[in-house]
Design goal:
0% strand; DNA-binding; homodimer
DNA sequence: CACGATACATGATGGAAATCATATAAGAGG
DNA sequence: CCTCTTATATGATTTCCATCATGTATCGTG
């Protein structure tokens, strides 16, 4: 069958990256095999090395894709609540601590889903750099929603809010099915949205 | 060579669990092979199934061991700062957000190190239950150090503080080597220790 | 002190993964 | 329309893993 149009080949390339972003977030980088990954993208495993140099190479691309996908979201929320930073923050936090977010890591925040992989020695190079850039982007996004309260050291507040949200989501996922899972999400929401 | 004393066999059993706790925290459950694990415990791979039913079985034991090991720590800190809850919390938070803690996951908090594994579908059974118990224990520990401030809803405060600490540690590990890593740790410490 | 139970080592087995080699069929350029 | 290029599929290769089978030498016991 092989050989598809240039357009199709490009689409396939993107499909592999998108599938990788989803699967890596859901099962971890080491939890996904290349054959499974390519199947999810609608191809066979042999096509892989025509698109990427190695699995690590794809991991970096998938990371960047996942972060880019969410990058626009912060601006979007801010824009929709034009001026009302408080409302923007409220919507963001509510969405982040929603049960649907906890239950769908494949579609959710890459900061929470990829942190563990990024911390492993085997991925410390480009993956960690991409992760740090994505985290910084999220911090900037939250920074743009703060300001409606205490003034100085806004960046520290944003960093703490992000850490709190990520920590709560990670813990909620790890305890899913038990009451403490929802408790953590609720406590985080309250801590951030209460002056 | 085989057949060792009953005492030795029991010690070996414990050594395997301890090695598993260390390695699982450092590299993730799927990142450690049984041969490597047994070698770390000073045995060969063949001895494994004399001690455990399966790798999952060991994962549960290792989880429980890791949590039990840290369980005493909360009480210890509280006892040493007898009465002064504020000082106890301060020491705990300082230790948790220390760079040495970030750099040694094998010796550190199992809540932060095992959350990702616990959230995976493949481990949702007994591992997740053990994790939830360990998390609850940490929350109780922090609860015992609060009280020196706002009254109502102390449990929510403890949950949020734990989520913040865990989130900060996870993010700091994922960005190790870049400036934001230390920033997150510092922001978390400040957020908790500032009324 | 001899005998049976067993913890451990060695090695086998079956499966799966990452990566590479090759063939093919269809796009693209002339 | 013919040729050359190339994205993809098929399948091989090498490695490693979880688990199991077997032998053995020592411990525990009578």
């Amino acid at each position: 069958m092989p050989r598809v149009s240039k357009k199709q080949a490009e689409a396939n390339h993107g499909a592999v990256i998108a599938a990788a972003a989803r699967l890596f977030k859901a099962r971890g980088i080491n939890g996904v095999s290349l054959p499974a990954l390519m199947a999810e993208a609608g191809l066979t495993h042999g096509a892989f090395y025509g698109h990427f140099k190695s699995k690590d190479d794809l991991a970096v691309a998938a990371c960047e894709h996942a972060f880019a996908e969410k990058g626009a979201l912060y601006d979007d929320i801010c824009t929709r609540h034009q001026g009302d930073k408080r409302a923007a923050l409220s919507e963001f936090v509510d969405r982040y601590t929603a049960k649907t977010h906890r239950d769908q890591p494949a579609l959710g925040c890459p900061v929470a889903a990829l942190a563990d992989d990024a911390s492993r020695e085997e991925f410390k190079g480009p993956v960690r750099k991409a992760f740090a850039a994505g985290l910084e982007n999220m911090v900037q996004g939250v920074l743009g929603m703060l300001g409606g309260r205490g003034r100085g050291k806004l960046r520290d507040d944003a960093l703490a809010d992000v850490a709190l949200l990520v920590g709560a989501l990670v813990l909620a996922r790890a305890t899913k099915g038990q009451p403490i899972s929802e408790e953590v999400l609720h406590a985080a929401r309250k801590a951030i949205l209460t002056d």
